[in-house]
């Protein structure tokens, strides 16, 4: 998992969530830190050295600003990667799973409208957008496969084949998705 140590609250929450999920799945998690563009290069060197099967990139906004570099390095090193924002698959990344910003903005508009009509902000119930999206990029998948197939047999990592088989596996991971 790639996190930004400069954002302590978000990093702590995301690390805890991923480590809890890994414990349930019996998976090993390596926490990698990057808070500058130069550190991103060394993260991928570590991933290759660890023979990591996949990478989860934090939803921290620094990584959003570095999306093109992250997507490029993930494709070059054939590391299947999931991101928090749909901007990553749009930039060529493999997939993302995260909140729907349009729904969040819609809720902001509803709140603003209610306040403009005279309701007191303190009287409004707290609401949270619960709509999430799983985005995938078939072109990114093909780039990942090309990178994987170009590696020599001794250099090939154990890859999560389940992740790329389609909706039947996705239904097990995300009920009601398909």
Structure characteristics:
single chain, 178 residues, alpha/beta, Rossmann fold, four-stranded mixed sheet, two-stranded parallel ribbon, 8 helices, elongated, disordered C terminus
Any overview of this molecule?
The protein is of the alpha/beta class and 178 residues long. The chain has a single domain, classed as Rossmann fold (3-Layer(aba) Sandwich), CATH 3.40.50. It is built from eight helices and six strands. It has helices spanning 8-25, 37-50, 61-65, 67-76, 87-90, 101-116, 138-150, 167-173; strands at 2-3, 32-33, 55-56, 81-83, 95-99, 132-136. The strands form two sheets. It has a four-stranded mixed β-sheet. Strand 1, helix 1 (8-25) and strand 2 (32-33) form a beta-alpha-beta unit. Helix 2 (37-50) packs parallel to helix 4. The protein is elongated and about 60 Å long. The model is unreliable at 151-178 (pLDDT under 50).
Unreliable runs, pLDDT <50, ≥5 residues? 151-178
Helical fraction equals 40-55%
| CATH class division | Alpha Beta
Under the CATH scheme, the architecture is: 3-Layer(aba) Sandwich
| Largest sheet geometry | 4 strands, mixed
Question: What topology does this entry show?
Answer:
Elements lengths: L1 E2 L4 H18 L6 E2 L3 H14 L4 E2 L4 H5 L1 H10 L4 E3 L3 H4 L4 E5 L1 H16 L15 E5 L1 H13 L16 H7 L5
Parallel strand pairs: 1-2, 3-4, 4-5
Antiparallel strand pairs: 5-6
Condensed summary:
The chain has 178 residues and is an alpha/beta fold. The chain has eight helices and six strands.
């Amino acid at each position: 998992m790639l996190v930004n140590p400069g954002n302590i609250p978000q990093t702590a929450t995301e690390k805890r969530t991923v480590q809890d999920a890994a414990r349930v799945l019996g998976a090993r998690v390596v926490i990698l830190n990057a808070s500058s563009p130069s550190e991103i290069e060394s993260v991928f060197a570590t991933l290759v050295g660890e023979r990591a099967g996949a990478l989860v990139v934090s939803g921290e906004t620094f990584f959003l600003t570095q999306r093109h570099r992250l997507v490029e390095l993930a494709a070059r090193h054939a590391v299947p990667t999931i991101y928090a924002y749909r901007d990553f698959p749009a930039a060529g990344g493999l997939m993302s799973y995260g909140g729907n910003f349009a729904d969040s903005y819609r809720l902001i508009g509803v709140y603003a409208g209610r306040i403009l009509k005279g309701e007191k902000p303190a009287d409004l119930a707290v609401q949270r957008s619960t709509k999430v999206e799983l985005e995938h990029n078939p072109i990114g998948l093909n780039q990942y496969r090309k990178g994987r197939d170009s590696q020599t047999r001794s250099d090939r990592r154990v890859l999560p084949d389940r992740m790329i088989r389609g909706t039947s596996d996705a239904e097990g991971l995300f009920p009601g998705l398909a």
